[in-house]
Write a structure and sequence with these properties.
heterodimer, A: about 350 residues, mainly alpha, MetI-like fold, about 0% strand, B: about 350 residues, alpha/beta, D-Maltodextrin-Binding Protein, domain 2, 6-stranded mixed beta sheet, two-stranded parallel ribbon, about 15% strand
């Protein structure tokens, strides 16, 4: 009888009981807990006071900012168009806004499983990217042309991220497969290529793409500085992503490939039906991780003179009466980055969960 | 001058870029190339900034470039192309300036660039006459009662770490046997905050930057500049070496704004002066008698257009840095020589 009672799972302790056990178990625990809680509330109060209570909100109230104890959100009210759109012509901001919405919608749509086939995903991105590009660049359908050196702010950050992913992802698959090729020449060359670009800092690659390539490449191959930088960035991205995918490929037992071979599947059938789907699943966390890193690293292009969101922020506070309010601008930009990166990583977590369920 | 944006990294990258750039280019430009290229392209490519560098390069509320250097870019566009509609401001970083000029990404750099021998002789670039002089100076509270360097004896000085201004200031006070404790910060924002928070008695920086700092104070009138400058840096426009015609155009574009100021000609009264020129210099400047255009390969009314559309040097200063702007900086050494400054217009004959 007694054994049967012992086998019952222990009753789940109440919230209060757990709190008591983990925070107030001894007098010393009590003191530490109370001090920490007080400190936490004090900090929280300070932040809320700074951001909401003692803060100034409207651009017209800039005169009050110097005396105010809290944040001066007036700088955002007055200058948010510079943070979001950079140097994009004022009258055409609706185009930049629409372009951003289209791009974000494309990214969100490609998260739905319905789009997960090469044709659907390809078509979706071709359309989304095309609309984005036409809206930004103009020069057709009665839109005035706007050259890339005037693009900026959030729109440019999204453009760089999207095009780096778009070029980099297929390239990374090619590189990963190339490195595992049975032909020694192909395997060695791709290996060398990957290791070469991985051993260079991103800054150097971007600087070379922006500044040095015009000296080396013939005129017709140069293109705009923005596209050179994106290609450089995409190669860098692809080299890292290729190693992530290769890790996923190597985790697949070789027997599966051999089984495919005995069934008479050719190379492409084996790659697209057996290897790649499993490789993606295996290395999903690191693939998502690479996307997150890339989104954040887009800010490095400011060094080669692009007005992405961080540079735009710098320009937003870098004038006249706004110079003291850089903290507010950085907080605003930080929130934008957070919104994007947090949704990316939550989506990654959801995918992992979902695949594990499917696997089980 | 103090620019602290991941200096070492940028330095390394730009060093590499410059090394490769100088290594692989036919450095010299042909005489007349730039003007021809600008006219064919129909637009002038001038340097902007990746962010802002008030009051020289900044962005207005409606997303347009403005500032002292930008106004001279506009003036050059007007001189060459007749209007500033076709000025393209290319945002470039400090490190990228000279490689961008060499690769043709910009036609000219007008961007608070100091004339140094290394740049002049080793980078394949040519400088214009200085159009601005920037003093490195120390700002201190007026409540010290004096703006002499001695007033800081036993006090402290905020500076940006590892910059030339920090060394300048240390040497300056050491040579005068004044005890000043240096407190250094990595970012210029931190330096500024520290000064306003009272962590140090004074702050050292490049004059225009200090003026921007002062203007952001709770009460700008509480702060004053030290009455002795630590150093003076001549700022010049930079062009590709070998294109003498282009250098001439940029030099005379600056000169036209100075001559106009010395003759009292501004954007408001230029038409009256053109109708009734008081002397032969004004006649030549405004294109009443021919010569000013042909010798540079431009039209004879280029200087008239510049003054009409952009203004003379006093207007440009006033609008961007002086009393007409929020910075309200005294013109000081940047006035014409006749007003006690160091700017000397060349002679138009």
């Amino acid at each position: 009888m007694t054994t049967a009672i012992q086998q019952l799972p222990p009753a789940k302790p109440s919230f209060a009981a757990r709190l008591q056990k983990s925070l107030f178990n001894s007098p010393l625990d009590c003191v530490i807990s109370v001090v920490c809680a007080a400190l936490l509330f004090y900090l929280l109060y300070q932040i809320i006071d700074w951001a909401f209570i003692a803060s100034i909100w409207r651009a017209e109230d800039v005169a009050l900012c110097k005396a105010a104890d809290g944040a001066c959100w007036s700088v955002i009210d007055a200058r948010h168009r510079i943070i979001l759109f950079g140097l994009f012509p004022f009258e055409e901001h609706w185009r930049s806004t629409l372009a951003c919405i289209v791009m974000v919608a494309t990214i969100v749509a490609s998260c739905f499983t319905w789009f997960w086939s090469a044709t659907r995903l390809g078509l979706l991105w071709l359309c989304g990217f095309g609309v984005f590009y036409i809206l930004m660049r103009g020069g057709m359908f009665g839109l005035t042309g706007i050259t890339p050196e005037r693009w900026g702010g959030l729109a440019l950050t999204i453009f760089i991220f999207a095009s780096v992913s778009l070029i980099g992802m297929p390239l990374s698959i090619v590189l990963a497969l190339g490195r595992r090729s049975k032909l020694p020449v192909v395997a060695r060359l791709t290996g060398l290529f990957i290791d070469f670009f991985r051993s260079l800092p991103l800054l150097t690659i971007l600087f070379a793409a922006a500044v040095i390539t015009p000296f080396v490449l013939p005129g017709w191959l140069q293109g705009d500085k923005l596209y050179r930088v994106i290609v450089g960035f995409a190669i860098f991205f692809a080299c890292y992503q290729a190693e992530n995918i290769r890790a996923g490929l190597q985790a697949i037992p070789p027997g599966q490939d051999e089984a495919g071979l005995t069934l008479g599947l050719n190379y492409w059938q084996r790659v697209t039906r057996i290897q790649l789907p499993q490789a993606f699943r295996n290395s999903l966390p690191s693939i998502v991780n690479q996307f997150v890193i890339t989104f954040k690293e887009t800010s490095i292009v400011t060094i080669v003179g692009f007005f992405e969101i961080l540079a735009s922020g710098h320009a937003a506070y870098g004038t006249g009466e706004w110079t003291p309010h850089y903290v507010e601008v950085y907080v605003f930009i930080g929130l934008i980055y957070f919104a994007f990166v947090f949704s990316l990583s939550r989506y990654g977590a959801y995918l992992e969960n979902r695949m594990r369920v499917g696997h089980g | 001058m103090t620019r602290n944006i991941g200096k070492s990294l940028i330095g390394a990258a730009s060093g590499l870029a410059l090394a490769l750039a100088t290594f692989s280019t036919p450095v010299l430009a042909e005489n007349g190339d730039t003007l021809k290229a600008v006219k064919e392209r129909g637009s002038l490519l001038c340097s902007g900034h990746n962010g802002s560098f008030p009051p020289f390069v900044q962005v207005t509320d409606d997303n347009k470039w403005s500032g002292y250097d930008i106004d001279y870019c506009r003036a050059l566009a007007v001189a060459v192309l007749g209007s500033d509609d076709n000025l393209k401001v290319v945002p470039i970083s400090w490190a990228q300036r000279f490689p961008s000029l060499q690769s043709g990404d910009v036609d000219v750099i007008i961007k608070a660039t100091g004339w140094t021998m290394g740049r002049d002789t080793e980078l394949g670039i040519q400088f214009s006459v200085p159009y601005f002089v920037g003093a490195t100076n120390v700002m201190m509270p007026k409540e010290l009662g004096s703006t002499d360097p001695e007033a800081l004896d036993g006090g402290s000085l905020c500076a940006n770490a590892g910059t030339s201004t920090e060394r300048l200031a240390a040497n300056f006070f050491k040579s005068r046997k004044i005890e000043v404790e240096m407190i250094t910060f990595e970012k210029s924002e931190e330096t500024r905050e520290a000064y306003f928070a009272g962590r140090c008695d004074s702050i050292v920086g490049w004059g225009p930057n200090l003026a921007v700092t002062r203007q952001s104070a709770e009460n700008p009138d509480d702060h004053a500049m030290m009455n002795v400058a630590l150093a003076l840096e001549p700022e010049s426009a930079a062009m590709r070496q070998g294109d003498d015609n282009w250098v001439d155009i940029v030099n005379w574009m600056f000169a036209a704004t100075w001559i106009a100021e010395s003759k009292g000609i501004n954007s408001g009264n230029v038409d009256e002066h053109k109708a009734n020129p008081e002397d032969s210099t004004v006649e030549k400047l405004l294109g009443v008698t021919p010569g000013i255009g042909e010798r540079l390969g431009l039209s004879d009314d280029w200087a008239y257009n510049v003054i009409k559309q952009i203004g003379n040097s006093a207007e440009i200063f006033d609008r961007n840095i002086g009393a007409g702007s929020v910075y309200n900086l005294d013109r000081g050494l940047n006035a014409l020589w006749s007003d006690g400054g160091v700017i000397v217009p060349m002679i138009l004959d």
